[in-house]
Amino acid sequence: MVHVPNVTRADAVAAVRNPLAFIAARWTPTPRTVRRAALSALVMSVVIVVTGGAVRLTGSGLGCPTWPKCTDDSLTATSAMGFHGAVEFGNRMLTYVLCAAVGWAIIAARSEKPRRRGLTRLGWAQFWLVMGNAVLGGIVVLVGLNPYTVAAHFLLASALIAVAVVMWQRSREGDGEPRPLVGKPVQQLVWFLVAASSLLIAVGTVVTGAGPHAGDSSEVERMPLDWETVAKLHAVLAWIVVTLTFALWFILKAVDAPKGPLDRTRELFLVLLAQGVIGYVQYFTNLPEVLVGLHMLGSGLVWIWVLRVLLALRERPQPALGLPGPAPEATVGSRA
After folding, report:
1. pLDDT of res. 287
2. R_g of the chain, CA atoms, integer Å
3. Which residue in 4, 88, 157, 249 has the most C-beta neighbors within 10 A?
4. What is the structure's pLDDT at 112?
5. CA angle 165-177-314, nearest 5°?
6. Distance CA 227, CA 209 (A)
7. What is the pLDDT at residue 26?
8. What is the pLDDT of residues 74-97, one digit of tens each?
9. Can you say whether the dihedral through the CA atoms of 201, 206, 209, 213 is positive or negative?
10. DSSP for residue 174
11. Which of 319, 302, 322, 321 lies closest to 118 in space, CA to CA?
């Protein structure tokens, strides 16, 4: 029999006043548990983007015509609303799964010993991004899928993915001072890559906003731009990102960079090639919904790997307790 400690009245009051502190005082997760919690939040942040795309591509964006209820008279979808209502309401319900994953990440980070305040803050940042995007999602419905609000909805989801990636990475390393693994020129090239990737994602939302997939079967406002011209600009930006990635890999090989940055860059290059193939095929086959959905998934994966490349440029060891730190090592890539 496992002994269950008695919960006193004082314990109950403490749990109500500060539940996170109450749990942290009684539970210490393993580092592996914290990493898994952070990874679950990242996975769900991608899943919610993909399912949101499914809502749009099936024309179910107004399957629930109001918010926060599904209809004026019902909190949930009804059988009379059919397939579109079920798809839209299902996506709304997945927001609660995302909240649960983020909540688990927050609790695990808060309970880790020694306490890591930075990791906990990253968890809370995800929580507020989820709440903000839930409200923005409601606004998207209330304004009839206005393309500008839809674009903002996707960009905020990309911000959520970014924070989730950082938290996952930080859960796998220590809290010591970051030590660069490459020189300044290489770091600057990677920041150019991050900027170009951000612009690529932003222009991608414009392609969607001007394109034929409005998200609903009825007449929905589109961005007043020529769709094919914006799509070609998007393709040019994609080639810029691919070129920067290849240049980065070549430079990292030339300066004999550590394995981490090289591996992440190679993986990013492969993800970009797969995303490019999907992008061109969907363009020349008149945007079939399945390929557009895969392209949205690819967009999230590209963003994740760009950030992984950035985070691989430094290491953060566990701080030494009571011992002087090692002498700084010379970084590679200073001659790049």
Report:
1. 82
2. 23
3. 88
4. 93
5. 50
6. 9
7. 87
8. 888 888 788 888 888 899 999 999
9. negative
10. -
11. 319
